[in-house]
Write a structure and sequence with these properties.
By secondary structure, the chain is of the alpha+beta class. The chain has helices at 19-36, 65-81; strands at 12-15, 48-49, 89-101, 107-110, 117-124, 136-139, 169-172, 178-183, 188-190, 199-210. It has a single domain (12-223), classed as q2cbj1_9rhob like domain (Jelly Rolls), CATH 2.60.120. The N and C termini lie far apart (69 Å). The structure holds fe (ii) ion.
């Protein structure tokens, strides 16, 4: 009795070969940005995230040049895998920031609503390869096989066996030196850091736009080139 499965979520990952050589510089830079940042705005049980604290442009910071190049290269590989014609598309890093999660801190579930592809790179992970420092969890809000809506909620015990056909989340343990790419609209979060160490990662939000003069007919589905935009009051 075959049961087919369809419509996969594509999550890309790669262990970067030069990770160890760059670890110290990236760690030091992330910790320095935290120190330089504004007064803490997040709740104590939430990880420190640069985007909330004035450190959301590490893509323009020379200390992060290596990882920015890696993100650019791997995002293109990811998009090719998704069947896109990169000749018609211009890619932008919209914002990028460090995340530092300490003992008993986590990142609640969220989507990156202003971008298209998100990346995370694990700079430093206590007990790397285990879930102890906090895993990245993707949530499936579509739930195509939840034939009676809500049946998988925590308020029922009707589902007695969690398997590949009814799973509503997918968990990635953090691995030092690993880059992960995923659609920004996919809801996700990071589980609690149970270690005494600092879990340091970098997040990137990437936007797709049409290249000027190409992608004709696609502007309903792809941002027009930002060069063609005009800010209010920008008439000369
Ligand atoms: Fe996120």
């Amino acid at each position: 009795m075959p049961i087919d499965t369809w419509f996969p979520l594509a999550v890309y990952y790669e262990d970067l070969p030069d990770a160890t050589a760059h670890k110290k510089q990236l760690m030091d830079a992330a910790l320095q940005l935290e120190k330089d940042g504004y007064e803490r705005r997040a709740f104590p049980e939430m990880a420190w995230t640069g985007d909330l604290h004035g450190a959301e442009r590490i893509h323009t910071d020379p200390r992060f040049t290596w990882i920015v190049g890696q993100v650019e290269s791997h995002v293109q590989g990811y998009l090719k895998g998704l069947g896109l014609d990169l000749n018609q598309i211009a890619l932008y890093i919209q914002r990028a920031w460090p995340v530092i999660s300490r003992y008993q801190q986590e990142v609640g579930s969220h989507c990156h609503n202003t971008s298209h592809i998100s990346a995370v790179y694990y700079v430093s992970v206590p007990n790397s390869g285990s879930d102890e420092a906090g895993s990245l969890v993707f949530f499936d809000d579509m739930r195509p096989n939840e034939v009676s809506p809500g049946l998988g909620s925590e308020n029922t015990n009707i589902i007695v066996e969690w398997n590949a056909l009814n799973q509503d989340q997918a968990m990635y343990v953090p691995v030092e030196g690993r880059l992960i790419l995923f659609p920004s609209k996919q809801r996700h979060g990071v589980t609690m850091n149970h270690t005494e160490g600092e879990r340091i990662s970098l997040s990137f939000d990437i936007v797709l736009a049409a290249k000027p003069g190409s992608a004709a007919g696609s502007y309903e589905f792809l941002l027009p080139p930002p060069e063609q935009w005009q800010r209010f009051g920008g008439r000369s």
